[in-house]
Amino acid sequence: RVVRYLKRWKDVRFSSRGNAAPPGIALTVAAHRHFMAEFFRDGRPNDVEALIGVVSGIIDSFAVRGLAWFLLGGPSHKVRIELPVEPFSNLCERMTPRHMQRFYDELVWLLETLQAVRKGRSEAKACERLQKVFGADFPLPAD
């Protein structure tokens, strides 16, 4: 489910044209690498916590570019997500530095939104926030 959440987020937040969006296979590989199952006390899966863990892991895998990039005002974050089998290629190699920076910024926004959902007390407010992440067809709670 976490992979589906990430791919839906990608579809909502990025253009499908060009290489601006992170490749779906890169999100799948990153989710596999950083996934840790989370559960509520009653044993039900806690997808929000699991997604927070994956998004945090992806953010932590970004590297900051050198000082020259920073001083020139260029994008400062880059990521390498490798295919886990031969040829072990970088799945994000077609993304430009600006695309990688946008990917990073959107992940930070996603993480902040998920953390706000986790802390919130209102199911309706949480669903409204998640609609901004996953699109207008994300369900709202029944009255």
Walkthrough of the structure:
With 143 residues, this protein is mainly α. The protein has 6 helices and 2 strands, in the order αααβαβαα. The two termini are 26 Å apart.
List the helices and strands and how they pair.
Layout: H1 2-13, H2 24-34, H3 47-60, E1 63-64, H4 67-71, E2 77-78, H5 97-119, H6 123-134
Antiparallel strand pairs: 1-2
Alpha-carbon distance between the termini? 26 Å
Give a short account of the largest sheet.
Answer: 2 strands, antiparallel
- Say how many strands there are: 2
Structural class: mainly alpha
Average pLDDT for all residues: 90
What is the string of SSEs from the N terminus onward? HHHEHEHH
Beta fraction: under 5%
Model regions low in confidence, pLDDT < 50 over at least 5 residues? none
Q: What's the gyration radius in Å? A: 16 Å
Query: Oligomeric form of this entry?
Result: single chain
Number of helices: 6
Approximate shape: globular
Strand order of the largest sheet: 1-2
Proportion of helical residues: 40-55%
Features:
143 residues; mainly alpha; two-stranded antiparallel sheet; 6 helices; 2 strands; 54% helix; globular
Short précis:
The chain has helices at residues 2-13, 24-34, 47-60, 67-71, 97-119, 123-134, and strands at residues 63-64, 77-78. It has 143 residues and is an all-alpha fold.
